[in-house]
Amino acid sequence: MTIQLLCAFVIAFLFVTAFGKWYIPWLEKEKARQQIKTELKQHSGKSGTPTMGGVMFILAVILVCLTLGFPGMLQGHYEHIFVLLFALVFGAIGLLDDWQKIRKNQNLGLSTGQKFLLQLVAALIFLLLMKRLGFLHTALYLPLSGRTVEVPPLLYYFFAVFVIVGTVNAVNITDGVDGLATGTSIPVFLFYVLVTFAWGEDYTRLGLFASAMVGGLMGFLVFNFNPAKVFMGDTGSLFLGGAIAAMAFAYDMPLILIPLCVMFIIETLSDIIQVGYFKATHGKRVFRMAPFHHHLELGGWTGRKWKEKEIFVLYTGVSLLCMVFSFLIVFERF
Q: Which residues, 6+ apart, have CB-to-CB distance to 79 below 8 Å?
């Protein structure tokens, strides 16, 4: 298993770094460029940077799943394929959004309502399909206590849809600084790799997916780190969010996303708090700008403006600590 997971990492990393050298110039040629929101004056110089770079690590993961994961498929193991397909559906929604932005030559693609409806339908179909195939159980594992509690099916589905759609949008919101969503996501998928080692051979296929994600994202970071040569776009961020959520359900521990994805949760909460407080007080703000990484960029509450690389280090570092803590509370489950 160790060799397989290592190969998954290496193949994905090498594919992305090689493919990116051709793909990014092609995006520039095709004028697939990111338009920056007018209120983000500090990022105005990035307008025109190629977008839809998420295709790079998406293709890498597909390659790994269909090659290294093929022997498992011959034995009737398709869990990694289900996770891949689920993430691809969300990536397709992101691709449609990116395409609309490029076509209109502006930062607005699909409306918020359109994206939410598409994500909701995708989540429901995935859950019903998993239930029908026997991959989804309505018992909920509580990581800190080590217990599993039965949840009424209807309540569980409401919970699951909330987790999936929330995770997808949380990753999307975090993708606002060079390398930020990439760096914050790498420890999350590394957590799934470590869990695979701890829980054994039965999770090898899922481990291949996770290891390919780590390799693909690290390869993508070569081009996405500040100053970014390419952005992942909604194509990449929605795929990432879908993959993170799907893996949590595939490992049958969706609640692990609470300690594992603290930075994504902070980003989402900052956005919700800002909007709610702004409306309640008729124009007052809690943060200089939401989500939280923009608040830091603009000086936070101290007046010290954080550089993009500093924000990257902060988010990635906290995400690594969350990964370690999350692993320590689940590794003895099986």
A: 135, 205, 206, 250
Q: How sure is the predictor about 107, in pLDDT bands with cuts at 50, 70 and 90?
A: low
Q: Does residue 316 lie within any of the structural domains?
A: no
Helix (H, G, I), strand (E, B) or coil at 51: coil
Q: What's phi and psi for 141, nearest 5 deg? A: -80, 130
| Weakest-pLDDT range from 44-58, 71-85, 203-217 | 44-58
Q: What is the DSSP letter of 307?
A: P
Residue 69 lies in a domain: yes
3-state secondary structure of 140: strand
pTM over the 0.90 mark: yes
**Domain contains 326:** no
Instruction: Please give the residue range of the domain that contains residue 41.
Output: 2-258
The helix or strand, by DSSP H or E, that contains position 109, with its residue range, turns out to be none
- Residue in this structure with the two tokens 């193991």, named with its chain if needed: 77
For CA atoms 113, 116, 122, 124, give the dihedral sign.
negative
Residue 140's nearest CA partner among 124, 157, 127, 126 is 157
- Asked if the structure places residue 320 within a domain, the reply is no
Q: For every residue of 236-305, which 3-state class applies, written as one string?
A: HHHHHHHHHHHHHHHCCCHHHHHHHCHHHHHHHHHHHHHHHHHHHCCCCCCCCCCCHHHHHHCCCCCCCC
What's the average model confidence in pLDDT over 133-156?
Answer: 86
Domain count, the chain: 1
